[in-house]
Amino acid sequence: MNTFLSRANTIFAFTLSVVAALTFGCFLSTAFEDHRAPVSIKTAKAMVKRVSDFSVSREKNDLGFITFDLKADMNPLFNWNVKQLFIYLTAQYETDNNKVNQVVLWDKIIQRGEKAVIDLNSMNTKYYFFDDGNGLRSNRNVTLSLSWNVIPNAGTLPKVDGDGTYTFEFPTEYSSSRS
Amino acid sequence: MDYLLPLVPDKIRNLPTHMDFDGQKRAERTFQVIIILFAVVGFVWGYICQQFSQTMYILCAGFLLSCVLTLPPWPIYRMKNLDWQKPRITEETLESSSTVSSKSKGKKK
C-alpha cells in the first residue's frame, strides 16, 4: 500500500474477489428456481414413408412426416440469471429393435428479451424423423415431449422437461412418395 | 529517464508522494468500504430490475471512485507522520559524520 502500483494492485484484486462473490450470490438467488412450464402439443398430420436414408445405408427405412401444434409460455422462466433457453421437441417410441428411441424433431433458441411465447400451428419438423429400421409404420405409441436447457450467467445448466406430452400413432400404410 | 529529472523544477520534484503508515491503513479501509457498499447496493438494484449487468456497472462505479480516492497520495493520508527520535549526538557520531561529510565534500570538489 505504500506505492501507487501496489495500491492499484490491491484495489483491483479486491474488486475481482467482490465480483466473484456477487456472481456466486446471483447463482444462489436463483439456485432453487423451478424451471418447469406447462406445454401443450398436438399433431395435425402424421404419415410415414419408406425411403433410403443415404447418409446411413442404402436400405430403406421408415421416415415419418408430422406437423405439430405447440403452445407454451416461456416468460416465467426468465430471471437475471438466465441468458437463453434452448428448447427442443423430442419424439420417443419403442420398436422391436430398440426399447427406447429418441429423435429430436425441432428446436429453437430464445434469448432473453426476445418474444418468449411459443405458438405454432401446423409446423413442419426441422429435422428428419428417420427410424433406424421399419419401426414407425403402425406404431401406436409415439410420444412427443418438449424439453429445454436453461443457460445461466453463472451456475448449473439444468435440463428440464415440460409439463405435458402428446401421444399419437402412425398410419398402418405407407404413403406414396408423391403426396 | 533519469536525465529528465534535473529538468523538473524543484517545486514539483519536492512534492511529497508518500503515505504514512496510518494513511495506508485508512486508504485500504476506505476502498474496502466503498467497494463493498457499491457491491451490496448493486446486488439489490440488479435483483430489483433483474439485470445482473446493472450490478456490474454499479460495482465498476465503486471501483473507479475508490481508485480516485485512494490511488493518488492525497495529503489527508499524510497527517500522522512518525515522530522519529532525534539522532543522539555523541563524539563518535560527530566524528563519523564529519568525516563522511568531509569525504563527500571532497568528492564533489
TrEMBL record, chain A:
It is found in: Endoplasmic reticulum membrane. Its main location: endoplasmic reticulum. GO terms for biological process: protein targeting to ER; signal peptide processing. It comes from the Eukaryota. It is a single-pass type II membrane protein. The keyword Cell inner membrane does not apply. GO terms for cellular component: signal peptidase complex. The chain crosses the membrane at residues 12-32. It holds the Pfam family SPC22. Keywords: Endoplasmic reticulum, Membrane, Signal-anchor, Transmembrane, Transmembrane helix. Essential component of the signal peptidase complex (SPC) which catalyzes the cleavage of N-terminal signal sequences from nascent proteins as they are translocated into the lumen of the endoplasmic reticulum. Essential for the SPC catalytic activity, possibly by stabilizing and positioning the active center of the complex close to the lumenal surface. Belongs to the SPCS3 family. PANTHER family: MICROSOMAL SIGNAL PEPTIDASE 23 KD SUBUNIT SPC22/23 (PTHR12804), SIGNAL PEPTIDASE COMPLEX SUBUNIT 3 (PTHR12804:SF0). This is Signal peptidase complex subunit 3. It comes from Ridgeia piscesae.
TrEMBL record, chain B:
Its main location: endoplasmic reticulum. GO terms for biological process: protein targeting to ER; signal peptide processing. It is a multi-pass membrane protein. InterPro entries: Spc1/SPCS1. It is found in: Endoplasmic reticulum membrane. The chain crosses the membrane at residues 30-48, 54-77. GO terms for cellular component: signal peptidase complex. Belongs to the SPCS1 family. Component of the signal peptidase complex (SPC) which catalyzes the cleavage of N-terminal signal sequences from nascent proteins as they are translocated into the lumen of the endoplasmic reticulum. Dispensable for SPC enzymatic activity. This is Signal peptidase complex subunit 1. It comes from Ridgeia piscesae (Tubeworm).
